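Data card: per-record layout.
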Amino acid sequence: MKKICFIANSLSYGGAEKIISFTASGFAERGDRVFLVNLLKNPGDAGRLDSRVTVIPAKAVKIRYLDRLDQTRKILKAVRAIRPDLIISFTFTANYLASLTGKTLGIPVIISERCDPSRELVLKGHVKACWNLINSMDGGVFQTEGAMRYYSEGMQSRGTIIPNPAVLEEDIVHQVRPNGGPPVVVSVGRLDNRQKRYDVMLGAFRLLLRSHPGCRLELYGTGDDEALIRTWIAEHGMEKAVRLMGRTNRPLRVMDAADIFLTTSDYEGISNALLEAMAIGMPVVATDCSPGGARLLIRNGENGLLVPCGNTAEIAAALGRMAADHALRLRCGENAKKVREEYDPRRIMDLWTGYVDRILGTKEKACQV
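The structure for this 369-residue chain is written out next.
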């Protein structure tokens, strides 16, 4: 039995948070003692964690320049008390704090990259120093080859590729409906325009309405850019065609009620929403975002349609193809369901446990030399 300590930015409903909950719970279910140091105090969002995972809050005091120092102190205190065999962290801030903790206490660390570091990090000043420390850790888990290539050669040699699992919280199989009324397009995700590019999505949908009047776009999620998106919708007179539905606790249900799933991100790891939409058999249209998550999932024309980032005309054309061609929707939806096998949660958890055993075994051998 291993003792593992996770360090997480938060336990909210985002994609990285969902996977850290899945992974921590998976180790607990397999008999390991698991602790999770939560950098934000949001215990209400910890419901999907296995009850055997011990959550330790480490929220910083809100004092400028002292909050990170206070947080580091709390993490060090918690990890000293736990004395884990291994620390696992997700996303840049948690990866840095885990690396600092591991280096200070002599505990091996596995960092995990969940998005596209080339788009999210400017490597200069203190960020570069943090980056160098992260790259010196014992191991790293990446979703795609593209994300891994951004890291040092040493980290790449020690790292591994483990994709997200297709975790289906409800047993739903989408039934592709025949051509009839105007299709409903659905998108599920954080309302963050810099990454998700809702300006592109709305522009493409506006073009689609010219050839397919009566179509409806439903956006599920919340985020800092909600007001901006509402303004765009109003400015283009799309209030009847586009609806902001707010956060949903049943994403599979709202996807299943629609006809086509759409995502227009410029960059993304492996989108949980896209993976889940495919797993239930939704016809999907997705941008070929860096560092390659959508490309990993989609075989263009066979299990979905892959389109260039930022190209409203091509996104609109792909939506139009999917809306008009019942046979295409059927083929893509049926083939999309095969991701259930490749990204089966048990298989993904096997990859995690195998990699953790490898890192701990390598560390143990090094100590014996």
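Known properties of this structure: Residues 3-165+344-368 form a domain with the Rossmann fold fold (CATH 3.40.50.2000). The chain has two domains: 3-165+344-368, 184-342.

See the next section for split statistics.
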